[in-house]
């Protein structure tokens, strides 16, 4: 009896002691959690329930999980809590912690070495933060660690060799940091490692063949921003469990080792943007599990191996930008799972596989810039999933398949520069998701499609039909293309009047109707297109007078009305347009005095030749006219004696100015000995201050007001050029810059702001931010959602679209199509109003001319005279 009593007494005492110990441990954990909370900033109040008054105890706090039996905290998951600050050392007081994740926050500072005290830790995830400093080597004491994820921080120094001492590691992600040096060969020692990523660092040297010893590895990521020496180690072919291999954009050279064909479980092979050469190994056809293969942007040669017919699970095949030749095998059209096929910029010949698209899964096809012949396959959109069809720059002929006019999934069609004939399929212009349509430089006939009352895609931003054989009048339904930004119909046989419904195209920025047979008057409604920067109506049969309403287009910078039958005078209001940088009124029947003020003071005679009745600056004296009382007078001319005196006066002023400049230069030269310039260069350049000063000549200066001066090639630009990625394309072939070159550079800066990316280095070899953006968005401002910087979640989308729209104007390929900086500022500050609904068009169309008539023309800007 006494022994039973003692036993119960001991049990009760033990329970009491455990309760006391548990209470003390719980109190310590609460203090640790509250200290951790105090060390961070919590703008989203994700930790608001972390307080002593919360019911349920600390085990019920968000992100906290406890052992159900003992009550100790075993997991702390703060992923995506939007926290900033530092990771408090108090976390190490959670002694029983098995899982610690603070991923996707903005925590900074060094990673605490004291984390090594959490000896039970299995998972440590601090990815997507701002941690800096070197890798804390003490972490290798965590011998039970299975997962170590430090991806996307700011860690520096060499890759930590010490992590190889973590024997149980399954998952190691050190990518997205600034680690340098080489991949240590000891990284091939792990027995259980399944995931290894060191991509996105600054690593170099050879890829160690020892990585082939990681026989349980399933995912290997080595690419992006690293720059390895040599090629792909054949030993990688020993990784029999490998599912994903990503070695893209990391400086690889040499041939693709045939041993990669041994990776029977591989579903993803990314080797793009390297310097790989040689032929495509036939052994890759043994990768029966492969779903995605990207070998683009290399220097691969030869033909597509016939063994690739066995890749029956392939969904993505990217071989673009190589030197491949031969035909595209017919079996490519039979691949049952194929969704993406991109083979552009190779030397493929022959036809497009006839059965391409019959699987019903095809989404993206880009075969541009090859030497393909034959006709387009009829079933490209059989499953109604095709989104992008690009085949420009080939030798394709025959009609456009009528089935494309019913392909409701299509967003982009680019089939210019071929020999396609026939008419444009019915329904093509009214596809609900269409954003870009390019059919230029073909042999198309028929008329401009009349969409009638059909609903038009609001994303349709570009139509290019130039250089075809299209004819007939433009239908009034052209005014329904409300989202259109570029309309290029030049070099066709269109006729009839330009429909006034054009005035409803409120988003239009470029309009080219040149080289057609349009007749009648220029519709004044065109002035309602307030975003127009480029208008070319030249080489038509237009008549009547120039509509003065043109002056209402505040950002128009290029206007070409040459070689028509226009008559009357040049309205003085047009001379007040501060945006105009190029005009051409030549070869018409215009008469009267050409305005000599405003932007017109920069234009020369070539803009007005072929109009015998025109007179004024650069054109000689005006013809004498008879007044109503029979007297005569000369308009715009000066007596010969006055002209002589004017010339002599100008000559004297020039000589005096030159003398003053010489005296001033000598004084500056003396002063320079006592006060030398100090220039801090952002990069080392091989020119001096004197070189720059010697280049400051009239013909080399840019940015003069709204028009700028571009007379002659700069003597210094062959030695001094802008930063790569910002240079306008015309410099590459003219060595010539003007103020429009600066506009291009500004456009690149705007794209940097919108995307959060650098101008070069992130898009593959030879691809800059401008080319990447055009490819991703199709030059459509609604496509900005695909490229916008994810760090701009609070910026209104319409404002981002507006900045993107201005950026795309600035980076136009042709300098004449870019706005001036004055226009850029004006467009940026003037957010456009939402487009008017179709029901409002008629009412507004009647009101607008009345308002324009009542409003007096703006006074000339004295700064532009």
UniProtKB/TrEMBL annotation:
Keywords: Leucine-rich repeat, Membrane, Repeat, Signal, Transmembrane, Transmembrane helix. Residues 1-27 form the signal peptide. It holds the Pfam family PK_Tyr_Ser-Thr. GO terms for cellular component: membrane. It comes from the Eukaryota. Residues 855-865 have a biased composition (Pro residues). Residues 508-836 form the Protein kinase domain. The chain crosses the membrane at residues 644-663. Residues 837-846 have a biased composition (Basic and acidic residues). It is found in: Membrane. Residues 828-865 are annotated as: Disordered. GO terms for molecular function: ATP binding; protein serine/threonine kinase activity. GO terms for biological process: regulation of meristem growth; reproductive shoot system development. This is Protein kinase domain-containing protein.
């Amino acid at each position: 009896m006494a022994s039973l009593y003692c036993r119960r007494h001991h049990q009760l005492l033990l329970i009491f002691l455990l309760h006391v110990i548990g209470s003390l441990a719980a109190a310590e954990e609460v203090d640790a959690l509250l200290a951790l909370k105090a060390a961070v900033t919590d703008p989203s109040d994700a930790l608001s329930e972390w307080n002593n008054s919360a019911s349920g105890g600390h085990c019920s706090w968000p992100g906290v999980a406890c052992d159900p039996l003992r009550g100790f905290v075993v997991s702390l998951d703060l992923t995506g809590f939007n926290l900033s600050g530092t990771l408090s050392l108090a976390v190490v007081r959670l002694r029983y912690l098995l899982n610690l994740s603070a991923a996707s926050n903005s925590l900074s500072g060094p990673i605490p070495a004291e984390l090594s005290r959490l000896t039970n830790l299995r998972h440590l995830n601090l990815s997507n933060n701002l941690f800096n400093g070197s890798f804390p080597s003490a972490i290798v004491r965590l011998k039970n660690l299975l997962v170590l994820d430090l991806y996307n921080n700011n860690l520096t120094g060499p890759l930590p060799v010490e992590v190889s001492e973590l024997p149980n590691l399954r998952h190691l992600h050190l990518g997205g940091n600034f680690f340098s040096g080489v991949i240590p060969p000891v990284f091939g020692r792990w027995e259980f490692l399944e995931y290894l990523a060191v991509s996105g660092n600054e690593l170099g040297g050879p890829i160690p063949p020892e990585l082939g010893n990681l026989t349980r590895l399933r995912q290997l990521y080595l690419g992006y921003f690293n720059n390895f020496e040599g090629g792909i180690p054949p030993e990688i072919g020993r990784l029999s469990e490998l599912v994903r291999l990503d070695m893209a954009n990391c400086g690889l050279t040499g041939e693709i080792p045939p041993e990669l064909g041994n990776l029977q479980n591989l579903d993803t092979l990314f080797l793009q943007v390297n310097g790989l050469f040689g032929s495509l190994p036939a052994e890759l056809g043994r990768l029966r599990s492969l779903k995605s293969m990207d070998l683009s942007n290399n220097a691969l040669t030869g033909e597509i191996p016939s063994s690739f017919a066995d890749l029956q699970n392939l969904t993505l095949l990217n071989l673009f930008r190589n030197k491949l030749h031969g035909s595209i095998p017919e079996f490519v059209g039979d691949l049952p799972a194929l969704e993406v096929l991109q083979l552009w910029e190779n030397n493929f010949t022959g036809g497009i596989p006839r059965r391409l698209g019959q699987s019903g899964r095809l989404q993206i096809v880009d075969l541009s810039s090859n030497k393909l012949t034959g006709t387009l396959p009829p079933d490209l959109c059989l499953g109604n999933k095709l989104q992008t069809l690009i085949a420009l720059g080939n030798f394709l002929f025959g009609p456009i398949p009528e089935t494309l006019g019913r392909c409701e999934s299509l967003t982009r069609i680019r089939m210019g520069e071929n020999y396609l004939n026939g008419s444009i399929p019915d329904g093509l212009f009214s596809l609900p998701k269409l954003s870009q349509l390019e059919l230029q430089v073909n042999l198309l006939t028929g008329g401009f499609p009349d969409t009638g009352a059909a609903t038009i895609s609001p994303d349709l931003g570009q139509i290019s039909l130039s250089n075809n054989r299209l004819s007939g009048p433009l239908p009034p339904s052209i005014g329904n293309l409300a989202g259109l930004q570029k309309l290029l119909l030049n070099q066709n046989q269109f006729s009839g009047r330009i429909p006034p419904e054009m005035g409803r195209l409120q988003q239009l920025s470029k309009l080219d109707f040149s080289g057609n047979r349009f007749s009648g008057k220029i519709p004044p409604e065109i002035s309602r297109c307030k975003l127009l920067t480029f208008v070319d109506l030249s080489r038509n049969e237009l008549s009547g007078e120039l509509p003065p309403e043109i002056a209402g287009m505040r950002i128009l910078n290029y206007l070409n009305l040459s070689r028509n039958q226009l008559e009357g005078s040049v309205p003085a209001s047009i001379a007040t347009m501060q945006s105009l940088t190029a005009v051409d009124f030549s070869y018409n029947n215009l008469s009267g005095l050409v305005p000599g003020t405003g932007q017109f003071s920069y234009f020369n005679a070539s803009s007005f030749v072929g109009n015998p009745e025109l007179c004024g600056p650069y054109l000689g004296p005006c013809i004498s006219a008879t007044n109503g009382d029979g007297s005569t007078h000369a308009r715009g001319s000066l007596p010969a004696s006055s002209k002589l005196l004017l010339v002599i006066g100008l000559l004297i002023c020039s000589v005096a100015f030159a003398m003053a400049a010489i005296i001033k230069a000598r004084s500056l030269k003396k002063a320079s000995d006592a006060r030398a310039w100090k220039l801090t260069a952002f990069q080392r350049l091989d020119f001096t201050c004197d070189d720059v000063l010697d280049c400051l000549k009239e013909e080399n200066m840019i940015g003069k007001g709204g028009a700028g001066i571009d007379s002659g090639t700069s003597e210094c630009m062959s030695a001094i050029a802008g930063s790569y990625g910002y240079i306008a394309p015309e410099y590459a072939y003219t060595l010539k810059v003007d103020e429009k070159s600066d506009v291009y550079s500004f456009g690149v800066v705007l794209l940097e702001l919108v995307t959060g990316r650098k101008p070069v280095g992130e898009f593959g070899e030879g691809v800059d931010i401008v080319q990447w953006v055009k490819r991703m968005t199709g030059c459509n401002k609604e496509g900005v959602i695909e490229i916008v910087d994810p760090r701009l979640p609070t910026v209104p989308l319409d404002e981002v679209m507006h900045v993107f729209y201005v950026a795309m104007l600035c980076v136009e390929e042709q300098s004449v199509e870019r706005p001036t900086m004055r226009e850029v500022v004006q467009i940026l500050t003037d957010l456009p109003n939402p487009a008017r609904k179709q029901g409002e068009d008629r009412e507004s169309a009647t009101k607008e001319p009345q308002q324009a008539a009542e409003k007096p023309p703006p006074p000339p800007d004295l700064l532009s005279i």
